[in-house]
Structures are given as C-alpha cells and as structure tokens.
Amino acid sequence: MLSLAQPLWAADSVELGATTIDSTTPTTTEKSQTSYQAVASTVATRTETPLIEVPASVNVVTHRVIEDRAPQSLDEAINAVSGVKQGNTLGGTQDAIIKRGFGTNRDNSIMRDGMQSVQARNFTPTTERVEVLKGPASMLYGVQDPGGVINVVTKKPQMTQATSVSGWGTSYGGGGGQFDTTGPVGDTNLAYRLIYDKQQYDYWRNFGSTDQEVVAPSLSWFGDDTTLTAAYEHMEYSVPFDRGTQINTTTGKVLDIPRNRRLDEHFNITTGRSDAFNLTAEHRLNDDWTLKAGYGYSRNYYNDHQSRYISANFTTGQVTRRGDATRDALQVAHTATVSALGNLAFAGMRHEVLVGVDYMHNDRTLGDLIRNVNDTTFNYNDPVYGQVPVPSRVSAANSDQTDLLHTHALFLQDAIHLNDQWILQAGLRYESFSEYTGKGRPFVVGADVDRSKAVPRLGLVYMIRPDWSVYGSYTESFRPNTSIATVIGDLAPEEGRAYEIGSKFQNDYLTASLAAFTITKKNVQTSATCGTETCTRLGGEARSRGVELDVSGQLNEFWSLTGSYAYTDTEWTKDPILQGTPLDGVSKNTAALYLTRDFGHVGIGDLRAGFGGRYMSKWGANDGTGTEYWLPSAKVADAFVAYRMKLDQKDLTLQLNVKNLFDETYYVSSSGLGSPAIVIGEPRQVIAKATLAF
C-alpha cells in the first residue's frame, strides 16, 4: 500500500493505555500506516485488547481513512460507522453524536485520549484516529447514556525527526494551512511535537464564515520502564450559529425556499476559546504488573448570539423571531485516574486484571442569558436582514445557569482466559456522584443529587478459530436525573441495560463484525400535570434494538474498503406524550461503503483514488406534542484522488476531495422538541490540498 497525503510519521506510536490512551508502535491498533484495518483498541476494556477478543461492538476510524476522506468534523469522520448519526449540535456549535438511538450534545460520551472532554469541537488538527464503542459503558467511564462512547486519539511525539507543511482551499471560499513537526530533543529520551493550524473559510449558506486557530505542543519521555507524556492544545474559534431550516407544519415538509437561505441574522455567531491538557504516566513494575496514571483538563469558554425562530405564518411567510444570547458560558472538566494492570496465572487460567480509581469534576455555568422581545419583521419568502438589533436584554430569571457534576469511583475488571477458546470478562464499578443544578437571580436550585451506584458488566467470548469469534454481553449505564429549569430535588438516576450478541472476523487484511442488540433506558424524566402545576416524574422509558455490520481493511494489495450497515428500531415505550413514537433523528436503515484503489507508480509519482457513499432512510423529528414530522431518505457520494511525488528529496502530495459529489439535498439532524429546526447537509464541496513532508 502507498502512503499519500499524510506525514510519514502520522500513524506511528499508537500504544493505548487504560483511561488515558498513550503511545507505542503502529501495529498495536492500526495494521499499518496505510491500512483501513484496525486490530486492537483500549476503548472497550481500558486495556490493549485485540478487537476479536472484545465482547462489544468497537469501530476504529484509522488515520489512513481520515487522511483519504478529509473530514472536517467529528460526525463526518465517523459517518461510515454503523449505528451512529449526527445529533443536536446546537446550531453547529457543539459535537453531538447519536449512538444506537441515544445521545446529544454535552452528554459526557466524547473523550480525548481516554479523558473526559468538554471541547465544543473534538475533531481537530491533532486527531490521529477515532474509536467508537457502542452500548452502555458506565462500568468503564461512569456517567453515560446507554448508546456508547467516542474516543478521539491525538497525535503523539515521535523519536524520528519529521516535519510536514500543508495548505488547502475549498470551493466555498477560503482555506487553511498547517505546520506539524516532531522529533527527539538532542540525544535524550525526550521527544517533542508541535502542531499549528489556521483555518478561515466561508460558510456554505448565504452568509457566515469559520475562523479557527489551533496550537498544540506536546512532550514525551521514553525510559526503560517508564513513559511520560504531556500534551496541550489551545483553540480559538468563531463559527456560524445556524439552526438550519424549519418545518412547514401545514404540509409536514421543510420550508420551500432555497437551501442556502438562512432564517436568522448576521450576528448569529459563536466565538470562544478552548484548552485541553493531558498528563499521562506508565510504569512497568515487573513482567506481571504495570501502573498507569493520568490527569486531564478540558475547558471551553464561549459567547453566542442568535435570532431564534419561534413560529411562522405559512400563508404569508412572516416569521416570529426573538433575539437571544449567552454571555460568559464556561464548562470545565477535571479527570484523574490511577490503575494497575496485571497479567496473572491463577487456578490454571490466565487473568488480565485491571483495578483502579477514577475522579471526575465537570462544571458548566452560563452567565448572562439574554432574551429580547419577539419581532415579526422577517419574511422567509423575501428576507431582509439587519432589521433587528443585536440582543442585549438580560433575563435575570434565566441567567447564572449552573450544572456541577462530581464523581469518584472504584473499578475492577478481569478478563479470564478459561482455556484457549473461552474468555470470560467481568467487571464492576462502584461510583459515588453528586450533581447540583439551578438558575436565576436570585438563584433557584433545580436539583441536588447525592447518590451511589454499582454498575456491572459481563461478557463471554468463544474463539471458534484464531480469526473468528462469537460473543455475548450484558452491560449497564446510568446518568443522574437533573434539571436546570424545573425544581425536581433528588431523583433516582436514569438507567440503561443492554444485551448484545455478535460475531467477529479478523485476519491479516480484514476486520469485520456483526452484532444484534437491545437497549432499554428507564427512569427517564417526564412532565405531568399535578393539580394546577407542572411536575416531573420518573415515568419515561425508551427502547432501541437492531443489527449492525461493519467491515474494514484490504481486499488485496491494491484495494481497501470500509463499509457498514445498521438496522436501528427505536421507540418511546413509556411517556405521557411520546409513547409509541420513535426517538428523534434516528434512521431505521443506514449503510455506507467506500473503496480505495492504489494504482502504484504512474508518471513521476504514486496515484491513489477512492469513491464511495452512504445512505440513510427517512427519520423523524417530534414537536413535543406527539406530532411526528418525517425527513426524507438520502444518498450522498464522495470521491478523492491523491498523487505523491518527490520534490527536491521531499515528499509532495497533491490531493483533491469532492464531497456530496452529486449535490444531493438532504437533512442530517434536528434541534429536538418544540419547533424542530432541521439541519441541512452541506452541498457539493471541492477541497484541494498540498502537503510537503520531510
């Protein structure tokens, strides 16, 4: 396989740790620097485990896939993985991934090198690969929804000197550039890495632009028995706050207007800055025991303004909007972990024992909440922008929104190799958690939760052959029931339970998995009428069940592929309003297939090209009253071509990506209950990139 459009060191050094995911050789996770195949992961066990021995659904989007497809967001990076889909991104300002029907923004499910992340955008220029674990994961990571977790693994310092400089442009207008250098510090065991990236490009709709700057230094020290890594990333950003288009409730379809026409104002912008710092240490005590420790700091500060759509007269096109804003929004997460991994022999069986403690402190505060009066001067058929002022009226009752979540836990896991064919994996986590929420001036407490929860996990793997296994598992999740807006006190947490069976195949070229699952989420908050008041009860229950198929790797020395199919059937099984309706934003059928061909030496360099697409069936958005609006199915194709040649003893790679090749109009997510805003998929985009590596 030929390596095109990537730094030569990009997939090196990818050892994975327990809670933190550290760095070692390229074959520990990815088959090679040029392969679509992943062979191991830590996200599902917190130990480096071959995928074929994991009793869970795990997908790894390798660095090669990322380089070829050139995604610009986290949901785009993983859109070929089965059972995942973009969720409510708060107008494109936050990562939000639905996993097996569950998930939204700020749901604790996104990690960075195994640590809790509160970054608005976790897919950054430092991303090496992305790992996806589907199904409940609270035994491993504490407070979670039952859909799964996503781990973004970053690039690490290398002991081999290498540098790359790249620049790119987009057909939307604008582009960006990146500088990436790594190598040893003198003759020491210390290695450095520095990544700088600047992007400034136009938004695809009728106004708006993205401006993003990232600087990310890191250091690693490699001793005989000890490895230390310190990594920092700072980002400053300004992005459009665009909730998309709207449903015409008289026709049940999206508004019949050009897809690039915005319904808000030029001041719909989110500006912010984020910081991420990870410190990890690993020490081998002896041949049997290894100690690991990590600390993660994640911070996101932002301000936003928007002209919020409230309603519309669908006969005249007149829109009721309200100027809203948030000032001094801040979310900070501290994560710490210490664990010991032992490889032991006991009672004639091999044990992979993991024992440790976790601590997490996640605080989110919103300062001034601004709420202007309603305005009706805008018409979606004949828009005139700039007639409303930038919002400035502070709402004391809605300001100072606060959500403070603190947890500490003890966990124990044992992967018992009963014999050469049977592997029993059992784990238990005991977690104490407290959450305090509320808002207003004066402050009104919404929830004050202080509880503990024991969470088990059980899995069994049978190795039919070294390259073929079957498995079954039972897993659980939990999440505190809290509310900023409504006083609910201390309620029992939401609980998720899942059963899964599956089969995996993994040889030297391909990794494939087939899984069937059912997930039930109970103790979901619901609103009910208590006399003349609205009260909150634990009466809601949701169910998701389905089948997933994933395959990635090489067909032969010329062809690589990544593909998936998912059938996901969701339903609110208990709810005063939503019972019998599907969960928002979930397509019952999704599929993806991408093929890449290495043509070898053509002319003065090496040629590589790929083509593929994805399909999603219709999906629903509920208005909160039980009325379901259906968005149509879609088929979206992408293609790329890359050519690598020598330029003055350096590797020059030229790459062209075409996204949404046939310019399909499609819809990807909604903003949830109320008047559901519908996010439109991006139209055709051409991206040209040049990379010089030396």
TrEMBL record:
Coiled coil location: none
A GO MF term: siderophore uptake transmembrane transporter activity
Subcellular location: Cell outer membrane
Domain TonB-dependent receptor-like beta-barrel: 220-661
Gene Ontology terms: cellular component: cell outer membrane
Keywords: Cell outer membrane, Ion transport, Membrane, Receptor, Signal, TonB box, Transmembrane, Transmembrane beta strand, Transport
InterPro entries linked to this entry: Beta-barrel_TonB, Beta-barrel_TonB_sf, Plug_dom, Plug_dom_sf, TonB-dep_rcpt-like, TonB_sidphr_rcpt
UniProt GO BP: siderophore transport
Membrane topology category: Multi-pass membrane protein
Residues annotated as domain TonB-dependent receptor plug: 51-149
SUPFAM superfamilies per record: Porins
Recorded family membership: Belongs to the TonB-dependent receptor family.
Protein name, entry field: TonB-dependent siderophore receptor
Organism: Pseudomonas eucalypticola
